[in-house]
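Q: I have 398 residues here and want to know how they pack in 3D. Can you give me a structure?
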Amino acid sequence: MKQTKLWTKDFIIMSSASFFISLVYFLLVTTLAVYAIEQFNASESMAGLAASIFVIGAVFSRLFTGRYMETIGRQKVLFAGLFLFLAATLLYFTVTNLYLLLFIRFIHGSAFGISTTALATVLMDIIPKERRGEGIGYFSLSSTLATSIGPFLGLYISQHADFSMIFIVCTILSMMSVIISLFLKIPRTVLTDDQHHSLKGFKLSNFFEKKAVPISIMITIMGFVYSGILSFISAYATEINLIEAASFFFLVYSIVLLISRPITGKLLDKKGDNFVVYPAILSFATGLLILSQSYNSFTLLLASAFIALGFGTMQSCFQVIAIKEAPQHRIGLATSTFLICMDLGVGMGPFLLGSLIPLFGFRGVYLMSAIVVFLCIFLYFSLHGKKTAKQKMYSQAS
């Protein structure tokens, strides 16, 4: 049986646009705190807010993007997000004080939330249904690459040029995302009168997709735990004298994902959700356990590989599950629900886990995180795994 084509022109354009947008995000998130301190004498907490308020803006805009995308039109929402993202990037050149910087970061984050939610939703119309796991696996590699390249590029530019050059590069990247997206052919979604009516009003169901909530709870917890790695791996590596190895941590993470994502995506499509998710949870827990007991470079980087196979796999697979559970006309809401929950987990994690480090130390926090992730096997079973197993049993019986 011939496979439906995945690598179409539109798929490549959307993956590229996602890469450029994510690159801007990661490039700025590694440099904005330093910029706020050096340019405006900001305190460390205010400098941290300058970096994190971006995520607050993204969560805020995702609430409304999923709700209005189907009624306004996916194409209009996508281009509104992309043009606002470009406009916000240009506004960095006008910053004269810290409060203006915070305002622009919030607007920029809002534009990021709109454009990434719209991209992920439109993608579902382009990817063949029977290859969604594989398609999202490939698509999400764009942000994975940006995770490695963005921070490196940001640090390199800040060492060899001033902050204006960083904003120039971000402007160019933002313009590229807009220009290539002009060549997209976005399928038009036609709603029935009943579907259109169901999306009216300010009901909670018009901001969140109920069927996507169970798996979104899982990504909230996993994102919460993963944020402890993002935020504290450098400090932990300094404490255990593995600073050099830590500089390769996310490089190894990205390489493993580049190799594994296409494979795990295909397995999700062919073998089902449980076949991929249970090993991924175990891999994430194993990686955290190894990380908590790392005493040399090999174990630290081995932990990175297991974490990539764990959290990295779940990130794309859970998104597929969230979308599969939702009706066609509510895919936008399912996408925004999933991304909001992931953002909340990643956003809350550093503050709450950071408060535990003085009490239990880095090793203790990572060990407790491993236990939490392992126990999520039972949570996943109750939220989704049990239902999936029954569906597979019935389909085999029939």
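Q: Anything worth noting?
A: Residues 133 and 266 are 6 Å apart (CA to CA). Residues 202-398 form a domain with the Growth Hormone; Chain: A; fold (CATH 1.20.1250.20).
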